[in-house]
Amino acid sequence: FLQKWVNREISNFDYLIQLNTMAGRTYNDLAQYPVFPWILRDYTSEELDLNNPAVFRDLSKPIGVVNEKNAKTVKEKYDNFEDPLGIIDKFHYGTHYSNAAGVMHYLIRVEPFTTLHIQLQSGRFDCADRQFHSIPAMWQALMDNPNDVKELIPEFFYFPEFLENQNGFNLGQLQISKEVVNDVILPKWAHSPEDFIYKHRKALESEYVSAHLHEWIDLIFGYKQRGSAAVEALNVFYYCTYEGAVDLDALTDEKERKALEGMINNFGQTPCQL
Questions:
Q1: In sequence order, which ranges of the chain are alpha helices (DSSP H)?
Q2: Bridge partner residues of 36 (DSSP)
């Protein structure tokens, strides 16, 4: 299977889906939804040039530190963290690159995710400024904020409908610009949701990504997921997100167990290490 990928007999998309499945990720569980990488960093050009390495995100770094400026903050946070009770290990990120709220965030315009989002927000849509309303703005926010570390979901590579408000949901308007949140705003180089998906998928299968995808796989599924390699790569997440970090069966206090389960479901989970 790995050999097939190396020989380019299966696509990068199929390989990522297989890895997600092997690591226990599934479309049936929002808390362990398949995780895909951000692969581009050019969301502003009129044309997307896939022969130019500068349009791609650095796949060897966690999304939280793709912007060099954030690396210092993230490292300091880790170095200065001390849990007086000694339960919580040091971590770089208190949030996670994949969690239920993140999946609903992306898929808010399509059911059943719309309803699930409304349930999560106590019966209404979250305020418009926090909605997924623009791909370029979302990338900019990731670059500016080391606490936002959302990676992508597979839909970004095959499902144009999630970028359109086909059901006409009232998602509110942005506070400052008063702009109504409707269809997702696309990069300038994409002329329609279909065009975005087509070019984005092409980017995923490009020469550059084929040559560097293994670096991202190491971070998410491989040896840089935990231990000293993870520390070095600025890739350590809150302790609850790791498989086997908490023995739920050993917790006799029902309340404590429920709280931890809720935390694991909401904070996100690191895939099983492959």
A1: 2-6, 12-22, 68-80, 100-106, 113-120, 135-144, 193-204, 207-220, 227-232, 254-267
A2: 152
Torsions phi, psi for 180 (to 5 deg): -75, 135
CA trace torsion 220, 98, 3, 52 (10° rounding): -90
Provide the token pair at 79: 């170095």
pLDDT in tens, 100-129: 989 999 999 999 999 999 988 888 888 888
**Nearby residues of 196 by Cβ (< 8 Å), 6 or more positions away:** 135, 160, 163, 186, 187, 190
**Residue 260, pLDDT above cutoff 90:** no
Q: Which domains does the chain have, with CATH numbers?
A: 1-267 (1.10.1540.10)
The structure tokens listed for 201 are 């998928």
**Residue 162 carries which DSSP code?**
G
Please report, for residues 85, 88, 103, 186, the alpha-carbon distance to residue 156 in angstroms, rounded to integers and kept in the order given. 42, 34, 11, 12
